[in-house]
Specification:
It is a single chain. By secondary structure, the chain is of the alpha/beta class. The chain has one domain (57-242): Ethanolamine ammonia-lyase light chain (EutC) (Rossmann fold, 3-Layer(aba) Sandwich). Helix content is 35%, strand content 18%. The chain has a six-stranded mixed sheet with strand order 3-5-4-6-7-8, sandwiched between helices. It has a two-stranded antiparallel sheet with strand order 1-2. Helix 4 (96-104) runs parallel beside helix 6 and helix 5 (121-141) crosses helix 7. It is globular, with a radius of gyration of 21 Å. The protein starts with 6 loop residues before the first strand and ends in a 16-residue tail after the last helix.
């Protein structure tokens, strides 16, 4: 009787403590171990679930009340999740009801903070409140006039432009669920745009990515976002011309 194949460890094993990426899987014969194959399939299932997850509106609205800011909800022209995935353009445009809501709440605001499902509502449900608990006090203490917090459904990043523009805000900050990876289904991306208006493209924005407990921690993310938006107001721009030089200050 032949002996069962023995798992051969990987020389990169010690590096696994520094990353959630799928490295140092080892092998059994010419294949990866069964346990790793099953974990891959499970991670893929979690990623698919995240894409089809929905904002927990009730829990979020209750939690957001602690920030003592008006709250509004909007949605894009994508009528359902399948249409959202097949027609990215519709996810960038608010529907008619949302346009009216924005107009009704418009004023002269500095910053519009938008919480959007994106490609992982799960990320917003799990991680946006801890991030806001650090970020919102920074914004208030700095004297910025904040627009009503906006909860956006079936949203792409560019939906932040007509939202902030409709509210009369000088800067749009959208916190959105990022495309799930096989090691991160709950990651938030923060995109800021100075002087937002419909029709802008990605070179007009700055991004802080991978915000989650196992990625960029909330305190570090809030500090980076706060630095970038301060620089955006100081220099009156955002995007490719605005660099994150915070690490070089004082050097």
């Amino acid at each position: 009787m032949k002996n069962a194949p023995v798992k051969i460890s990987d020389s990169w094993e010690s590096l696994k403590e520094f990353t959630a990426a799928r490295i140092a899987l080892g092998r059994v014969g010419d294949s990866i171990p069964l346990s790793e194959s099953l974990e891959f399939k499970l991670a893929h299932a979690h990623a698919r679930d995240a894409v089809y997850s929905e904002l927990d509106r009730g829990a979020l609205l209750n939690a957001l009340a602690e920030f003592h800011l008006p709250l509004i909800t909007v949605r894009s022209k994508a009528e359902n999740r399948n249409q959202y995935l097949q027609r990215p353009d519709l996810g960038r445009i608010p529907d008619e009801s949302s346009v009216k809501t924005l107009k009704d709440h418009a004023s002269a605001f500095d910053i519009s903070v938008i919480l959007a499902d994106g490609l992982s509502a799960q990320a917003i449900n799990s991680n946006v409140i801890p991030l806001l608990k650090i970020l919102v006090p920074l914004l208030k203490e700095a004297g910025y006039k904040l627009a009503p917090l906006c909860l956006a459904e079936q949203a792409r990043v560019a939906l932040s432009d007509p939202i902030a523009n409709g509210l009369g805000a000088t800067l749009a900050l959208i916190l959105i669920g990022e495309r799930p990876g096989l090691s991160s289904a709950d990651s938030i991306g923060a995109y800021l745009t100075y002087q937002p208006k419909p029709g802008l493209t990605d070179e007009s924005r700055n991004c802080v990515s991978n915000i989650r407990p196992q990625g960029l921690p909330f305190a570090a993310a809030a500090a980076k976002i706060f630095y970038l938006l301060q620089e955006a107001f100081r220099r009156k721009l955002s995007g490719v011309e605005l660099k994150d030089n915070a690490g070089f200050l004082g050097s």
